[in-house]
Amino acid sequence: MKPKMTFKKIISTSVLLMFMGILPAQVLEKANVFLNSLSDEIKAKTLFSLEDTERFNMNYVPIPRAGATFHDFNETQKKAALDLLRASLSEEGFRKSQEIMELEKVLRIIENNDNDKMPDGRPRRDPLNYHFCIFGKPSEDEPWGWRFEGHHLSLNFTSTDGIITSSTPTFFGTNPGIVRSTEYKGREVLKKEAQLGFSLLHSMSQEQLKTVVFTDVAPHDIITTTKRKVEQLESIGIAYRDLSKNQKKIFMELLELYINNYEHGFAEGFRDKITKAGIDNLKFAWAGSHQPGKGHYFRIQGPSLLIEYDNTQNNANHVHTVVRDLTNDYGEDVLKDHYEKEHQH
């Protein structure tokens, strides 16, 4: 019989890998290679100060944005940009980001609306219209951050002391949730998230469902939307401690699925933070339909963590999901600590 892979053992495995030289990714090196590949004109579009309010201007709909896009880059610059993105995520997180961008091709075909343009005249559905912004100067000594954002993607990173210390807010979205036509027919980028969410719901007894389901109507979107600072939502749902052994296993698979989108070094620290806050303090809550095909929503919530998943739009075939660190989105907690120490010096 194989030994159980507990949350603590997963952490230990990540630490071992780090000592083996596999972790962490060389994000700082990739950022500087990317910046050094840019012309002064493109750099001017890309660079912002760390204190610029643009850093908190999160959005996930197709609107005009700040930052250089793939339209601005030659092939060398595109590769450098994607190398930075790959280094900042796990392979799984990077795969999801690439497949979400490709869904713009699907939307362009199925919507068949050549008049749907952005203000610059480009098509609204555009897999190249994803923006890179770097905040501050990439350095081991000073904090800095960067963002990759476009339709259905908002990936925000903060680095201090040469490592990623914040990777939230993290937003992934898919439209269509399940592709019904075109050469991409059958693709479902966020399939596992949906499967595990329903699996956990369907494992509940009738008595547990009274605690888990807080409304029969799912919200139209994730509740936190694009807020810079997430207010603590009402603590609802069933606590991890009140789950059966099998339910706890599914719960942890779902939680790990989200954490495993991150670069390994950050993921290890994020796990440790969640564990210290108490796994027993995490809750699972559901709203809406108990079956796919109609609007549904779930969330995992704890003292420092909020995960939301919503599938209500386009006849429940349009997914929005987000991870928020309730104490350290945009690296605010880590940056505060850094500046206090600098001030003392």
From TrEMBL:
Highest taxon listed in the record's lineage: Bacteria
Pfam families: DUF3500 (PF12006)
The protein, known as: DUF3500 domain-containing protein
Species lineage: Bacteria, Pseudomonadati, Bacteroidota, Flavobacteriia, Flavobacteriales
